[in-house]
Amino acid sequence: MTRYLMPLAFFIILAVFLLIGLTLNPRQVPSPLIDKPAPKFQLNQLHVPEEIMSSDDNLGKVWMLNVWASWCVACRDEHPLLVQLANSGIVPIYGLNYKDDRNTALQWLKRYGDPYAISIVDTDGKVGIDYGVYGVPETYVIDKKGIIRHKQIGPVTVDSLEKKILPLIKELQSQA
């Protein structure tokens, strides 16, 4: 009898973990960077390669960092929404062009519109690694003190923008 209890107990435990896993949203992978200082960087700008942008340039304002690439299909899906958000003036959006060819990226922005206050180039992906990027697009909301407050995995959608990102931005902007 006890010979059958051990495999049965193992199966029940496995089934419980499977059921819990099926209830989770894969887009809500917790990031260890939430509520931590955004990783520091100094990168060349896409449009003006001889100019450098630093993560410290945005201290004192709430901003979004959108990780994108011209080769990214999902980036194209979210792009019209980012252009619309940029045109609203609610929050500055900075682009992190990830593992991309500069000329192709510039052509892509010219074709689809450029929502970015500045786009910076992460050709080797080192800054992406520091931010925990494992796929594009990913978007970060960073507060006035340089703390990451939200990470959007995958494309920004109308739903994620209206229910999570914009309310958070407005809350952060109202803080001293």
From TrEMBL:
GO terms for MF: disulfide oxidoreductase activity
Q: Which domain of life is it from?
A: Bacteria
Q: What are the GO cellular component annotations? A: outer membrane-bounded periplasmic space
Thioredoxin domain: residues covered? 32-174
The record's annotation in InterPro entries points to:
Periplasmic_diS_OxRdtase_DsbE, Redoxin, Thioredoxin-like_sf, Thioredoxin_CS, Thioredoxin_domain, Thioredoxin_ResA/DsbE_sf
Q: Name one Pfam family in it.
A: Redoxin
User: Which processes are annotated in GO (biological process)?
Assistant: cytochrome complex assembly
What are the subcellular locations of this protein? Cell envelope
Per UniProt, which keywords does this protein have? Cytochrome c-type biogenesis, Disulfide bond, Redox-active center
CDD domains, from UniProt? TlpA_like_DsbE
The family note in this entry says: Belongs to the thioredoxin family. DsbE subfamily.
Alphabetical list of PANTHER family matching this protein: THIOL:DISULFIDE INTERCHANGE PROTEIN DSBE (PTHR42852)
Q: What name does this protein carry?
A: DsbE family thiol:disulfide interchange protein
